[in-house]
Design goal:
This protein is mainly alpha-helical. Helix content is 76%, strand content 0%.
Length: 119
């Protein structure tokens, strides 16, 4: 059986990992083995946190909507229920944006959720 020389594929693999490890500290950017472990952890954290970011953003939107609707005299759960009953289909991201940037439109939505005059 012929001898297999691994120099080219190994160098390619090592270079790929070390290029991914740019910006890391100490031997985590210069030596292959620590860099490889650091990259594996970094990729796991990135994968996990892309999902966690979605949860965090939804929590932030709900907190903003709740604060704005309470300032109008209506808690979050009643506000969302009132919007659903009124047939207003607007997502939490847009509601939070309205609460922060356009208070007049948001107060109109609170009126709609209360069952008041619809404009």
């Amino acid at each position: 059986m012929p001898r297999i020389k691994r120099s080219v594929p190994a160098r390619k693999r090592h270079k790929k990992i070390l290029n991914m490890a740019k910006g890391f500290r100490m031997t985590h950017r210069t030596l292959f083995r620590p860099a490889n472990e650091a990259i594996l952890h970094a990729l796991e954290y990135a994968y996990r946190d892309r999902r966690i970011r979605k949860r965090d953003m939804r929590k932030l939107w709900i907190a903003r909507i709740n604060a704005a609707s309470r300032s109008q005299g209506m808690p979050y759960n009643q506000f969302m229920h009132g919007l659903k009953l009124a047939g207003v289909n607007i997502n939490r991201k847009m509601l939070a944006d309205l609460a922060v940037r356009d208070a007049e439109s948001f107060s109109e939505l609170v009126a709609v959720a209360k069952g008041g005059p619809k404009s």
